[in-house]
Specification:
- 2 copies of one chain form a homodimer.
- By secondary structure, chain A is of the alpha/beta class.
- Chain A has 2 domains: about 5-155 and about 205-304, Ribonuclease Z/Hydroxyacylglutathione hydrolase-like (Metallo-beta-lactamase, Chain A), CATH 3.60.15.10; about 160-200, no CATH class.
- Chain A has 10 helices and 18 strands.
- In chain A, the strands form 4 sheets. In chain A, strands 6-5-4-3-2-1-18 form a 7-stranded mixed β-sheet. A 7-stranded mixed β-sheet of chain A has the order 7-8-9-14-15-16-17, with helices on one face. In chain A, strands 10-13 form a two-stranded antiparallel sheet.
- In chain A, helix 9 (about 250-260) packs parallel to helix 10 (about 280-285).
- The longest helix of chain A has 13 residues, at about 95-105.
- At the A-B interface, helix 1, helix 2 and helix 3 of A face helix 1, helix 2 and helix 3 of B.
Chain lengths: ~300, ~300
């Protein structure tokens, strides 16, 4: 099974506490790292989790509130000090480049690598990145400023070769890739071997959805339908439902209602308000609706 | 004895490690807090040290390298979320306001308090702040960009009243302040009581000097002469003397030479390069020259 995991660097909300750091996660798909959000001190958490800076090439920023992006200048500087030469790609809405450039131009004049901003429209559900194994698309969210979540989807994988059958039929190496992609094999004496004798089916591609910050919105349900893991913000509990609505955040119960309606496999709650010294109240409220819920926590690695 | 202490929030150099945070200190003089430098994650260290955000009104920035100021936007945002209404004064060189304003204008549009930048010329030794008990002046340093250290000087204090003598001579309360300032007392029957019968001398005003970042420069010696505590950068050991010169930093030995030449009472080394997992080598090199040397460390509170 190929590695697909979500490392939680910070799952607090705007006011950092000694318990929770500011928003940031690193998705690890087969040892390529993709950062989502970059609150202040993200580089410290990255280091503390012993993640590898050279494996990081893409950063996705959900929205331009400081607690989701004030870690960018420090991280960019540090990558320069570490001698990086590879491009760093930052995917964010159009204003991001304009807002950060004066600072980067001043402090990172001699950066040994290029920082490339890619703008997306947070109001649309669109593909913003793909490579050989992964697609990333935006999830329009409902917040005080334009905000998008991100859907990480593995591309369909090749079938697994059954090594003992390949040996048995003496299949030449040159035909292995075709068989992985579904072809059968014809032996030298004309016998036709069906593909399902030579392979077992590929693992189903996995999906991860990040939805923070957002008020309760059912519009995201078709986009995140059936994901293996949903990280959904749960800034407040039911006791602060009015405040959640006013500040355009969600309660834990609302996050669970979304998870249930979207038939996700697992829900991780995060973006906790500093007012909850103990989030088990949030967990209980969510589990009443959607039992397979967990609390995100710093330095945690969630396997898909 | 009135409180005068230096809280070390971060004493690492540009590359943060899991051991050392980025540069920041908070001088506490009689429960007023004065911040020096504000590297990324300073607000987290401030909170971890249980310092009181409402006591902080002045921030002094030595120079515009990111590891000394990237914590400003997050700290400023957090003070707003905490409901601050009092002015926050940032003392820095002229470019600081220009560089940070675009970011603050975008992210802190609804800040409930004013942030006021005060520009100083880092090439001059000049008074940049004073109140009833304190003077702060700049110490021109020698670095790759314009840089100033800071000298914190307590103003002369009043003599201590000898309570038992005041009672003995039945000195009326209305005359206490004059006696604290050096006056004698004439009893109702005309006897002259000299001031030194009624008081013991005030504690000598204390001085603290912060010198980071800087190459070895003897020009600072007359400015920091005799301070009670000198924090001097010691980015490198003697094994990296060439690199220290090239990057315009100091070795621990050079810091100690400055401390000895300036007759300071105590030296704290800081701004440690990430290459030293154990700074005792730096301590030993400094103590060979100036024995009363210590290593700064995070969450340490140095009493003057």
């Amino acid at each position: 099974m190929e590695r697909f995991e979500v490392n939680i660097l910070g799952c607090g909300s705007a006011l950092p506490t000694t318990k929770h750091s500011l928003s940031s996660q690193v998705v690890n798909l087969r040892d390529k790292l993709f950062m989502i959000d970059c609150g202040e001190a993200t580089q410290l958490q990255f280091r503390a989790m012993k993640l590898n800076f050279t494996r990081l090439n893409h950063i996705f920023i959900s929205h331009l509130h400081g607690d989701h992006c004030f870690g960018l200048p420090g991280l960019i500087s540090t990558l320069g000090l570490l001698g990086r030469t590879a491009e760093l790609h930052i995917h964010a809405q159009p204003n991001a480049e304009k807002v950060f450039s004066p600072l980067l131009d001043y402090f990172c004049k001699e950066l040994p690598y290029p920082v490339i901003f890619h703008a997306f429209d947070p109001k649309k559900n669109m593909l913003i990145f793909e490579d050989r194994t992964l697609k990333v698309s935006t999830i329009p969210l409902k917040h005080r400023v334009p905000t998008a979540g991100f859907l990480f989807e593995e591309k369909p994988k090749s079938a697994h070769i059954l090594r003992e059958m390949i040996d048995f039929y003496q299949v030449p190496f040159s035909q292995i890739n075709a068989i992985k992609d579904g072809a059968g094999f014809i032996t030298p004496d004309g016998q036709i071997i069906a593909n399902d004798r030579l392979t077992r089916p590929a693992d189903a591609p996995k999906k991860y959805a990040y939805c923070s910050d957002t008020a309760y919105t059912e519009k995201i349900i078709p986009i995140i339908e059936g994901v293996d893991l949903l990280y959904h913000e749960a800034t407040f509990g039911e006791n602060e439902r009015t405040r959640a609505k006013r500040t355009m955040h969600s309660t834990a119960r609302q996050a669970a209602e979304i998870a249930r309606a979207a038939n996700v496999k697992k829900l991780a709650l995060g973006h906790f308000s500093a007012r909850y010294p103990d989030e088990t109240v949030l967990l209980a409220e969510a589990q009443a609706i959607f039992p397979n819920t967990i609390l995100a926590n710093e330095r945690q690695s969630l396997k898909l």
